[in-house]
Amino acid sequence: MSVLQFTDKGIYCAAGDFYIDPWQPVERAVITHAHSDHARWGNRHYLCHHDSVPLLRLRLGADISVQGLPYGETINYNGVTISLHPAGHIIGSAQVRVQQGNETWVVSGDYKVENDGLSGQFEPVPCQVFITESTFGLPIYNWQPQAIIFSEIREWITENQRAGKNSVLLAYSLGKAQRLLYNLKDAGIRFLAHGAIAIPHEVLLAQGYPLPPVQRITPDTPKADLKDSLIIAPPSAAGTPWMRRFNPYALGICSGWMQVRGHMRRRNADAGFALSDHADWSGLLQSVKATGAEKVFTTHGFSSAFARYLTENGIPATEVKTEFGNEDEESTINETGDAANTETPQQDS
């Protein structure tokens, strides 16, 4: 029997009797990261990287049963050894290494290979079988170095200031927003944020992360505070009455989907920045090869195309259908800045 199996509840280890990122409630869940499509409400017990613990409590409830584990430390479930390893996706994200006897499988979760300075550096983990995401598994998706993208964002903000416009950037509330704040903290601007971003930001500040101060936007926020500021909001805020208070403003979107210009036009944005917290095509190939895996399973995204390419190039690969979310999905956000459904918070791209 395989170390891991694909079931209707998620990726399952029968010998250890646990699931990895299950999409239905189970007894024991090993969680790769705190995004809502991977960390769902209703499991009896959660295991995750210790930096994800406060994020899981924020999103799933303070009373959940959760255990944190440092990178590289092992834990044993019924003779199966589990360890977590850096994924570089968001704060606390991890790959899950599962070893039974002489066989090792690794579940990537979501990952990126460029170090954003905040989420850690992705580390390939040697294994016989690698289960990898393939969100951007097409050759068209190749990211510029993030230093170039952040320089473009700073220039865009300056141009908006000269034109007398406020700058509003749409970015997912957990991961992308913190990456923006961390890498723009020395730009000499004030940061204002939607409540969906300000709330996890406060949690991470309390954990000691080197993030700049953020002013939460409320109905009482003075117009004067918007001047020479960067306003960060989740994508679900676009086109809502909440945005009217920023007129006149320029709208920018930070997402890997902005690599294809048509996406920016369809979203009625003034600017698009191809900044993603997922590996691009070359990053995916680099990571798969670095594991030395003899077999690869591809999940969510362009999984079929990526599996076909790997197989044609000498690495046996199979697409696996999962219930992990699409990158343009978000929960509904109300005007006060709170999630209308706290069990389905924002996801990423």
Automatic annotation (TrEMBL):
It comes from the Bacteria. SUPFAM superfamilies: Metallo-hydrolase/oxidoreductase. Residues 333-349 have a biased composition (Polar residues). Keywords: Exonuclease, Hydrolase, Ligase, Nuclease. InterPro entries: MBL, RibonucZ/Hydroxyglut_hydro, Xnuc_lig_assoc. NCBIfam families: Xnuc_lig_assoc (TIGR04122). This is Ligase-associated DNA damage response exonuclease. It comes from Chitinophaga agrisoli.
